[in-house]
Amino acid sequence: MLQAKRILLIISGGIAAYKSLDLIRRLREREANVRCVLTKAGSQFVTPLSVQALSENKVYQELFSLTDESEMGHIRLSREADLVVVAPASADLLAKMAHGRADDLASTLLLATDKPVMVAPTMNVEMWKHKATQRNVATLREDGIHIIGPADGDLACGEFGSGRMSEPADILAVIERYFGIQAAGSLTLVGRRVLVTSGPTYEAIDPVRYIANRSSGRQGHAIARGLGQLGAEVVLVSGPTNLPDPPGMEVVHVESARDMHIACHQALPVDAAICAAAVADWRAAAPAQQKIKKDGSGKAPPIEVTENPDILRDLSNHKVNRPALVIGFAAETQLVATHAREKMERKGCDWIVANDVSEGTGVMGGSRNTVHLIVGHDVDSWPTMTKEDVAARLGRRIAEHFRRQ
Ligand code: C5P
């Protein structure tokens, strides 16, 4: 899929630059043609020699280089690529890109290119969370730039949090997906950012006990993967599941409905939100700080419950950042379509995916699903299929919806 694809890789200054060497190696293994630009800061972390040896191409570093400019002008360098990837993308380079600055070779190329651009940010967690960086990232997203990651984890600076550059395998998955979609010439969600919720939520009763449900997260994760395969930038907000994180997307792990609610709001703005999570309706009103003990009286302790925030309803009624398309799920055991339509009205979402989860269907935790897609007054009943196929079909419907916009 990547054979002979021309990828311009810009390596800016960050300790994660060492991972870019691995990315180059993987791209070369797939026979992509990789040309690299190393910024001044980038060359503090990896040497031009290693980049050149791995990419098997000349490395470009200077904007005002007599030799480079005569051999391959910066305009040509940016135009002769099929895709531009910035990995790692430092806070500084993101700021330059967002403001259209062009004071070195990398920023000039990024301003001069007419090709799709993907960036994999890396920085300290506080730098990433800073309002200025978040503003810049939002601007870049609006400009149609695909943001890959960053991931959560230990940071080179010794802190923990969001700011780790996505792993080379994840960046590669996004690049392959992009070229896969191009080759298929089919429906795409490239340039669309989508939020997917998945899995159950755990609501603490005390430090060791919780209220939960039987959701496995398989359908929600399959939807996130399916949308990613169509080229969308996906944020998957997942409750506790046993599933691996799908590659090439931001995965936010949460436990409770309240955490999921916060994570979903932090993911905004998005073009579409698909709420596939089985969010617990209630939580313990006052979880005990210590493990609740049997007191020998034979009486069970009373557990007072209170209602959780309704994420789907809140996203559907968001005053500032209402996603253009909000899709809810309705797990029903009777009168599936009727109840689902009522739910759609009550929550204010645009589509509902309704499924029959009565005993014996094997849907909860199983690998297959029988769903009805409800759009306005239309009920589209799909045959029983795997959750992956439900995800692929739903993804196509979403892509068609946006194509018509
Ligand atoms: O109200 P009910 O739980 O039946 O609605 C199901 C739909 O609402 C699903 O899409 C689910 O993800 C979403 N939901 C939510 N927040 C809740 C409860 C449900 O987003 N607190």
Your description of this structure?
The strands form six sheets. The protein has an eight-stranded mixed sheet with strand order 13-12-9-14-17-18-20-21, with helices on both faces. The chain has a six-stranded parallel sheet with strand order 3-2-1-4-5-6, with helices on both faces. It has a two-stranded antiparallel sheet with strand order 7-8. A hairpin with a 2-residue loop joins strand 20 and strand 21 (378-381). The mean pLDDT is 91. Helices cover 35% and strands 23% of the residues. It has helices at residues 17-29, 48-55, 66-71, 74-79, 91-99, 105-112, 125-129, 131-142, 168-184, 218-229, 257-267, 311-316, 336-347, 387-404; strands at residues 6-11, 33-38, 59-60, 83-89, 117-121, 146-147, 151-154, 160-164, 193-198, 203-204, 210-211, 233-238, 250-253, 272-275, 282-284, 305-307, 325-332, 351-356, 368-369, 371-375, 378-381, 385-386. It has two domains: 6-175, 3-Layer(aba) Sandwich (Rossmann fold), CATH 3.40.50.1950; 186-403, Rossmann fold. It is globular. It contains 14 helices and 22 strands. By secondary structure, the chain is α/β, with parallel strands linked by helices. The structure holds cytidine-5'-monophosphate (C5P). Residues 197, 257, 275, 277, 279, 281, 308, 310-312, 328-330, 343 line the site of cytidine-5'-monophosphate.
